[in-house]
Write a structure and sequence with these properties.
This protein has 16 helices and eleven strands. The chain has about 425 residues and is of the alpha/beta class. The chain folds into three domains: about 55 residues, Alpha-Beta Plaits; about 270 residues, no CATH class; about 60 residues, Orthogonal Bundle (3-methyladenine DNA Glycosylase II, Chain A, domain 3), CATH 1.10.15. It is globular and about 90 Å long.
């Protein structure tokens, strides 16, 4: 499988070639060519920002339909805690979990349960003190992929633990296999996802060779049917086994608060995340033990697959947490192997100019020289997000200088002046006299 698979896709029929997406892409993965947006797959981190800002709904994302669960004999739902914030006046998580079983799942394992275990495992790692500080959360796959392609010096700071989604799938499958006496291969675990980054993380996981999750169903896909099922329940099963710490992971700051440590920073929204990572790389932020970063504004409740406003959902979760215990899930001993990464995070140099150092230096100098020829307005009319990015495209052979409307205007003026000085253009007054 291609290591740079991405779930975000373009609907060319809907695309009008505007520049909204190229301006907001954090890895400059999008260009507008021949009047249509083009996504460079190896640069895309599936943050979903282009889906969020596209006014023409030309950016979409792959996800599984509910029917995919029928491919397995035993079906486990893995609801993200952000799912609970989509429902108004919800005071009992069991209503949502029982509703999921009514949709055809045999079992529900809350991802918030695994989140509490990941929080405890993180506390153990912090006490061990064998990782570079500040430790950066690995929960948001879009952020992890962003670090991998843009911030090589920070790769060693990323927490080497599987995200709660992955940990939940592994634990749920193992418990079901032992309890029911059926092989794990016949058990399907499906994440109810708030964002496309999780879809990619299942298809091409980071830190582990193969994901235990068998599919990702968007919250927006399951919401109508789940709402109907919840409103027609005749009995509510006592399924919920997570507390404030686990449910708190749904919004920004929840993971960090669960560490019971005051030396942390939490930031959300891709632009804020980039700013924090830049300052961490430049060592302008000091004295922190832990950094929680979420690509979506508000945290996972701001994912593009959610149906409710992120801040409304966050307020609902804050009310819901009042009725919950602090935590209901704890590690028995050491961190289980299934929760730890099998592979270290390695820099993916998709943004470098050339494998040859001298050639890369030459290209960089050429880019800087060419960039000075452009107006520096970063208008996006050339189809690139900035004059710097456009200069790189020209040097790489992906664009022409005349794609810049200001360069093209100057070239047209120069041609007109040349023709005029050669007598190729007759002034209007002379034309009138000639006609007389």
């Amino acid at each position: 499988m291609h290591r740079f698979f991405h779930s975000v896709i373009l609907d060319e029929e809907q695309c009008v070639g505007c520049t909204n997406c190229i301006k907001r892409c954090p890895t400059e993965a999008i260009r507008v060519r021949d009047g249509k947006a083009v996504i460079t797959s190896e640069r895309c981190i599936d943050c979903g920002e282009c889906i969020r800002v596209c006014p023409h709904h030309a950016k979409k994302a792959h996800y599984d339909s509910l029917s995919v669960i029928q491919e397995f004999g035993y079906k486990i739902a893995l609801p993200a805690p952000s799912l609970y914030g989509q429902f108004n006046h919800l005071d009992n998580i069991d209503i949502v979990l029982t509703g999921l079983k009514a949709l055809g799942f045999d079992e529900v394992f809350e991802v918030s349960r695994a989140a509490e275990l990941v929080s405890e495992a993180t506390r153990k790692i912090l006490r061990r003190g064998d990782l570079s500080k500040p430790i950066i959360s690995s929960a948001c796959p879009a952020v992890v992929r962003l670090i991998r392609v843009r911030f090589p010096d920070l790769c060693s700071h990323v927490l080497p633990l599987n995200a709660p989604m992955e940990a939940a799938a592994g634990i749920a499958k193992e418990e079901a296999s032992v309890r029911l006496g059926i092989p794990k291969e016949k058990i399907g675990a499906f994440f109810i996802t708030p964002c496309p980054a999780k879809v990619t993380d299942i298809r091409v996981p980071i830190g582990t060779k193969k994901s235990e999750v068998d599919g990702a169903i968007a919250i927006s896909e399951i919401f109508p049917g789940l709402s109907y099922a919840m409103s027609h329940l005749t009995e509510i099963e006592p399924i919920a086994k997570s507390g404030v710490i686990g449910v708190g992971w749904a919004s920004s700051g929840g993971e960090a608060a669960g560490l019971l440590n005051d030396h942390y920073l939490a930031a959300d929204g891709i632009e804020n995340v980039i700013r924090v990572l830049e300052e961490l790389e430049d060592e302008r932020i000091r004295g922190l033990d832990f950094v929680e970063l979420n690509a979506c504004s508000g945290g996972c409740v701001g994912g593009v697959f959610c149906v409710e406003n992120a801040y409304v959902a966050k307020a609902r979760l804050n009310r819901l947490r009042r009725y919950l215990p602090v935590s209901q899930n704890h590690l028995r001993d050491e961190i289980p192997a299934c929760m730890e990464w099998q592979e270290n995070l390695e820099f993916a140099p998709v943004l470098k100019l050339s494998d040859n150092v001298s050639e890369a230096v030459r290209m960089m100098m050429e880019i800087d020289d060419m960039c000075r020829q452009f107006p520096g307005m970063d208008c996006g009319s050339c189809g690139a997000p900035s004059c710097q990015a456009f200069a790189e495209d020209v040097v790489r052979g992906f664009a022409k200088k005349s794609d810049c409307i200001f360069v093209l205007r100057d070239e047209i003026k120069q041609v007109a002046n040349t023709l005029s000085s050669m007598g190729g253009l007759t002034p209007p007054q002379e034309k009138k006299e000639d006609a007389t």
